[in-house]
TrEMBL record, chain A:
Organism: Streptomyces sedi
Family: Belongs to the transpeptidase family.
Region described as Disordered: 1-21, 233-255
Residue ranges that the Swiss-Prot or TrEMBL entry lists as coiled coil: none
Main localization (coarse): membrane
Name under which the protein is recorded: Penicillin-binding protein 2
Top-level taxonomy: Bacteria, Bacillati, Actinomycetota, Actinomycetes, Kitasatosporales
Amino acid sequence: MSSPRPPRPRGGRAERDQAGALRLASHRPRLRLIGVGLTLVMLAFTVRLVQVQAVGAASYTEKAAVNRYVTVPLTAERGDITDRSGTALATTVDAYDITADPLLFSEEESGVPDAPQQAAELLAPILGREEAELAELLDDPENRYVVLARAQTPQTWRQIRDLRGTLAEQASKGTGEQVLSGVFATETAKRVYPNQDLAAAVLGFVNSEGEGAGGLEAQLEAELSGEDGTITYAQSGGRRVPTAGEREQPPVPGSDMELTLDRDIQWAAQDAISEQVEKSDADGGYVVVQDTTTGEILALANAPGYDPNDVASADPDALGNPALQDAFEPGSTSKLITMAAVLEEEAADTDTHVTVPNRLPRADRNFADHEEHETLYLTLAGVLAHSSNIGTILAAEQLGESQPEANEALHSYLDAFGFGRPTGLGFPGETAGILAPSGDWNASQQYTIPFGQGLSINAVQAASVYSTVANGGERIDPTLVRGWRGPDGQFEEATEPERTRVVSEETAAELGEMLETVVASEDGTGSAARIPGYRVAGKTGTSNRVDPETGAYSGYTSSFAGFAPADQPRVTVYCAVQNPTEGAYTGSEVCGPVFNEVMAFSLAALQVPPTGTEFGGLPVSFDPDE
Amino acid sequence: MSHRDRFTTLAGLTRLNRLGGLVPARGTTAARTPFVLLVVVLLGAGMVTLLILNASLNQGSFQLSELRRETQELTDEQQRLQAEVDAYSAPGALAERAEELGLVPAGPPAFLGEDGGLLGDASPTPAPEPPAPPEDDSPGDEDAGDAEDGESGEGEPRELPTEVVPQGGAAEPRPEPAEEPTPAPGAEAPAPAPAPETLVETPAPEAAPVLPPAEGAQTP
C-alpha cells in the first residue's frame, strides 16, 4: 500500500482512494499464467505458420494459382498456299463470329419490350441476313448463346461496336434505348481464296474448324497447320497483372506451301475449259498443263468448278478434283504408246507401209475406224495422223511372235508410261486408273487396248505420256509442290521427282515427228491445234465413254494432247471433255480449240520463242502400185 | 517518487558517463529533429517513388493497349486492302478490265533471235473481231463493273461496287484507249510484234494504280 507501482495511471490512484481496502492477489501466478497462455498462442501461430509456409506451401500455391493464373491457347496461323511466283492462292485473315446472348434481349434484362426486333432491324443490313431470321434467333430467352453470323470481317464487327456505343450514349441521355448490349464477337481465323474458283479443285477447302478437308489443304494439313501454343499469365478481375510472371509457349506458324501452278496459265486453262464444257453442254472437262523439262504441273483445271470461299453452297458432287479422281478410257490419244512400243521394239518404222481395210475381223467382231473408207494405203505416221484403229491393231500385232507376247510387250510400255498406278502426286482420292495384267486381257481387250479402249486412266497420267515423249523419252513424275517456306523464312525445295527412261531419245524424236504430222499434215486430224509461228505436236482422241451410272458405253470422251515447240518441247497440254452433248463431239472439234488457246497462252506466258525451223510432216500414205 | 526518479536518472547518467563520456550532458532532444526529418523524408520519398512507379506502370499499360489496338486496326485495314487488291489482280478480273479498256487477247508472240532475225509470226495480230466501240460507253462500263464485282464475292463484296463505279477520274481517259485499238489492227500498220505480248501483260500494273484514288474516295 505504501509503495504503489510507479507507472500506475491516474485512474489507479482514484480507484485506490475510493476503495482503500481492495486487496489484490499476488500478481506473479497471474503473470506466469498469461505468459504460458501467450507462449501457447505463439506456439500455435508458429506451428500454423510452419505448416502453411513450409509443409503445405506447394498445395496452397497451387490453389491460389488456380484462380490467379489462366492459360489461354494461342492458335498457330495456317500457312498460305501460293503459286509458283508467290502469289497467294489461299491465305488466312482475321475474322469474327458474331454471337449473342438472347437472355439479355428479354424485357426484364433490356427494359425494352421488343428488343429482339429492334436489334434485328439494326443488325440485318450489317450482317446481310434476313431480319426475321435474326429476330427469331434473339427472341429465345431460354438460350444463352446463338451465332448470328460466322467469319465476319473486322470492319463488320467494328461497325456493330460503334453502333452499340452510339446506342449506349443515347440511352444515357435518355433519347434512345440500348438494345445491342447482348451482342458479342469471338475472334477466329478465316481461310480466304482471293482468286475465287481459280484452282479450287487443286487447293481444296477447309472445314469449320479450320482444318483441311479437301484437296491440297487436306493433303498438306501437317505442314500448313503449324503447332498451337499457350500463354499462362496472372490475372486479377479479368485483367492481366503486368508485373506478375507469365509463361508463353509461342505457336509455330504453318509453312507457306509454294505450288508449281502458274496462276495465269491456270486461269487461261480454266477459262477455256469452262467455256467449252458449257458450249458442249458436257458433264465436265479437265485441262492439264505440264512443264516437259521438269515435270511440274503448271495448271490443273476442272470444269465445272466451285468457289472454295463458299463451300456450303457448292454442288457436293463438284467438290473433288476430277482431273485426278475420274478414271476414263483415253481413246486415240493413247495410240501414242502403241506407236512408241512398235518403234522402240523395232517392229516397224515411221514409213512402214500399212494397208488398212475398212473392216478388220478380230476376236468376235469386226473392228472399224471412226469413218467408213476405201482400203487405205498408209505409212505408220499416216496411221497415227488418220487415227486409224485398224492400222494401230495391225501395228500392235507386230510387237510379238504370238498375240500373248504382243500383249505383254504392250503392257510393259503402258506400265512404263505410268498407266495403272498413282501419278506420285499423293493427292487425296486420286485414282490409279484400271490396267489389267496382260494375261487377263480378254479376247476383244487385246485388240482395243492398243487404241485406248478397255483401260482407264486419269487426265494427269495422260498428260504425262506426252511429257515423256517431249522430254526425249524420259518420264518425270509429275509434281504439284515446288517447296515450302517454314516459320524460319527459309525456302526448302521439294525432293527431286523420280526420272525413268521409257523409250530411247531416237524413238522419242520419231514419235515427236509423227505427232507433228498429225497437226501439220493436210490429212491429219489435229489441224485445229496449229499455232502460227510454232511447231506443234498433238493427237486427238474421241473415245466411247463408260457411263458411270449404267456401266455401259454411252456418249463420248473428247480429248486432245500435245506439246510445243515440237522440236524443242517446253509445255504439254492435255484436254478432255466428258460427254459433250451439244454440237460436235470429236476430239479435234471439242478439245482442239481449247488446246490451241491454252497452248498459245502458255507459250506466251512462259516466253517460249519459236524455234524458227520448218517441218512439213512425214509422208502419210504410199502408192500401192509402186 | 520524484526523489526516486531523480535518483535513477542521476545513477543512469553517472553510468553512461563512466562508459566514456560519449553522451552529451543534456538530453537528446537536439539530435532527434534531423533524424525524424530524415525518416519522414525517406518515407515520403519512398511513397512518392512508389506512386510515380505505379503511375508510370499504368501509363505504360495504357500505352500498350492503345498500341495493341492500333496494331490490330492497321492489320485489319491491311487485310481489307489486300483483299481489295487481290480482287482486282485476280486474272479473271484483270481480263474483264482489259476487255473493258478495249484490249483483245494477244496472238502468239514473236521474238527477236540472237542473230537479229525474227522468230515467230510477225504479221499483225489477227485481232479476233474487235469489240464494237459503242459498247464502251459509260453505261456499258457500269454494267461490266457490276458483273466483275459480283464474281469477286468474298471478303467484303458489298464494298466493291461503290469503288468501281465512282471512278470519276478513270472514266474519262477510258474512251480513248477504247477507240484507239480499232484503227491499229485495221490499218495494216506494222504493229510491232512484241506489242501483242505486252497487251496481255500490262493490264496488271495498269489496273493497280487505279486503286489508290478509288480507295481514297471510299475511306472518308
